[in-house]
TrEMBL record:
It comes from the Bacteria. Keywords: Cell inner membrane, Cell membrane, Membrane, Transmembrane, Transmembrane helix. It comes from Salipiger mucosus DSM 16094. It is found in: Cell inner membrane. The lineage of its organism: Bacteria, Pseudomonadati, Pseudomonadota, Alphaproteobacteria, Rhodobacterales. GO terms for cellular component: plasma membrane. This is Inner membrane-spanning protein YciB. InterPro entries: YciB.
């Protein structure tokens, strides 16, 4: 089923809003400890517990409004439930911090498998956004594969060697900036292999 178009600001709010709410809530509660059922939970765990239903609600609303969710959105939602749930259940923030690593490893591996088959599975997901020739898709897919693996390694380095607060800043702003810079760096590829240029 084709994706229904909705207000771009609303779509962005549903996609990015939960992450920003998590960030703000963490800053407000990071130094507090909550005793629930006789067990002490720090602010990070409590905020994670609230983030899971918020993310699911926004994802569900996005699906209801557009009639479509990407594979990336579905996988992300599932991993948030699994790893966020483990962090809350076991009162161990490490599981939630590992979530981005696993997401990037899964996407990198999936794209790598497609490349081994001589296919660009990235094209299946993004062709409507960026019409490219086959050669362009293959090059972009190779770059995305390396990029995802690089982000997985970077996330591991940050959460294992830095404070929780530093990781939250990195997750909220650092990873977003990395994706933005990565796309900017592909400008020459889009110009060289774009279908519009071929047709002109």
């Amino acid at each position: 089923m084709a994706e229904r178009q909705i207000n771009p600001l609303l779509k962005s709010a549903l996609e990015i809003g939960p992450v920003l709410v998590f960030f703000v809530a963490y800053l407000a509660l990071k130094d507090r400890v909550f005793t629930i059922g006789g067990e002490a939970y720090d602010g990070f765990i409590v905020v994670t517990a609230g983030f899971i239903p918020l993310m699911l609600a926004c994802t569900g609303l996005l699906w209801k409004l557009t009639g479509h969710l990407s594979r990336m959105q579905v996988v992300t939602a599932v991993l948030i439930v699994v790893f966020g749930g483990l962090s809350v259940w076991l009162n161990d923030e490490r599981f939630f911090k590992m979530k981005p690593t696993l997401i990037y490893l899964l996407f990198g591996t999936a794209l790598g498998i497609g490349l081994l088959r001589g296919e660009s599975w990235l094209r299946t997901v993004m062709e409507g956004l960026m019409p490219l020739r086959h050669e362009g898709w293959m090059i972009l897919t190779k770059r995305f594969t390396a990029f995802f693996f690089g982000l997985a390694i970077l996330n591991e380095l940050v959460w294992r060697t830095m404070t929780t607060e530093a990781w939250v800043y990195f997750k909220t702003f650092g990873l977003t900036a990395a994706v933005f810079v990565f796309f900017l760096a592909q400008g020459s590829l889009f110009k060289r292999y774009g279908l519009e240029q071929d047709e002109s």
